[in-house]
Amino acid sequence: MAYNNLFHAQVADGIFLISSDTNGPDADGRSLLPGKATPNSYLVIGKEKALLFDLAIDEKGLKEYAESLAGKPVMLALSHAHYDHIFHIEQFSEVWLHEADVPLLQGNRVGTRKVNSCPPLHYLAEGDVIDLGDRILDVIHIPGHTPGSVLLLDRHTDVLLSGDTGARRLLYGITPSVSLDELCNSLRRLKEYDFSVMYSAHDRCSIPKAHLDTMLDVIIHDMPHAKKEMTIPGIGTMLCTSRGKETETAFFVMASLLRNE
After folding, report:
1. Domain containing 149 — which CATH number?
2. Which residues partner with 12 through β-bridges?
3. Which residues lie below 8 Å from residue 6, measured CB to CB, with a gap of 6+?
4. 30-35 long-range CB contacts below 8 Å, 24 or more apart?
5. Residues with Cβ within 8 Å of residue 23, at least 6 apart in sequence
6. What is the pLDDT of residues 22-32, one digit of tens each?
7. Which end of the chain is more exposed for a tag (fewer CB within 10 A), N or C?
């Protein structure tokens, strides 16, 4: 079966990045180098079942592609419920997400859309574990990007699937959530977990754990003085500040609808 522009790359033992070759970080649609933002979902394969993290690719064949790659049942979990993480969610029979993001599925916030045929929902919370059979994923709740943003830590590989939270680009304030102080405290807590690298929903390159220090430094010291404005279609005009070059792993840009919290 043809899957349009979908492809996959193994980023760790039993963890596969799935993306579209029409949205590469550079001229190579399948490049894993740092560069422009890309839409990525992740498939984690256990002995008994597999988990697909996010529907970040606007391709109707993503469900079948993941099932074919896994060779076993695939459950769907969402890092959060913004519109660009729930493409074709109606094709799934059930979905796992944090309860605080359920209102976003009603489409009444910036960056959301209403899901008319929403599958049955199951709730993830801080401290939950997902057992895929000989493979455990720990659920970490970091409100900030959205109220219900979650990350998944794979104990087998020490890889953190970080959604839009541990990332080279952070949008803040588009969904009412928590103060910047609380977000920073959560990022400090995240540093205490045992993982080596992060993989985000919008970069194919691995992001080192030390990137959290860069995020904290920018949020605390740079954002209060941000003057540059950036307009994002469907969201609006945001204040932003950045560090480094987009083609380098250490790049980080933060954009916020709010100057202070």
Report:
1. 3.60.15.10
2. 15
3. 18, 19, 20, 21, 57, 59, 61, 62, 65
4. 31/204, 32/204, 32/205, 33/204, 33/205, 33/247, 34/168, 34/203, 34/205, 34/246, 34/247, 34/248, 34/249, 34/251, 35/246, 35/247
5. 29, 38, 39
6. 999 999 999 99
7. N
* 90 close to 83: Cβ distance less than 8 angstroms: no
CA atoms of 76 and 54, how far apart (whole Å)? 7
249 in a structural domain? no
Q: Which amino acid is at 153?
A: L
Q: How far is CA 162 from CA 27, 31, 45, 147, 218, in A?
A: 25, 20, 17, 15, 18
**C-alpha 255, offset from chain centre:** 16
- 256 found inside a domain: no
Q: Which two tokens stand for residue 152?
A: 């998944």
Residue 260 has pLDDT above 60, yes or no: no
**Domain around 173:** 6-220
Measured at the CA of 235, the angle between CA 202 and CA 55, to 5 degrees, comes to: 35
Kindly report the backbone phi and psi dihedral angles of residue 259, in degrees, each rounded to the nearest multiple of 5, phi listed first: -75, -45
- Looking at the structure of the chain, the number of domains it has is 1
Tokens 């079966």 belong to residue? 1
Distance in angstroms (rounded) separating the CA atoms of residues 59 and 109: 24
pLDDT reading at 59 higher than 50: yes
Write b or e for each residue in 175-186: b if 16 or more Cβ atoms lie within 10 A of its Cβ, otherwise e: bebbebeebbeb
Digit-coded pLDDT (tens) for 100-142 = 999 999 998 888 999 999 999 999 999 999 999 999 999 999 9
The closest of 172, 242, 167, 260 to 207, measured between CA atoms, is: 167
Is this model's pTM higher than 0.90 or not? yes
Contact 243, 211 (CB under 8 A): no
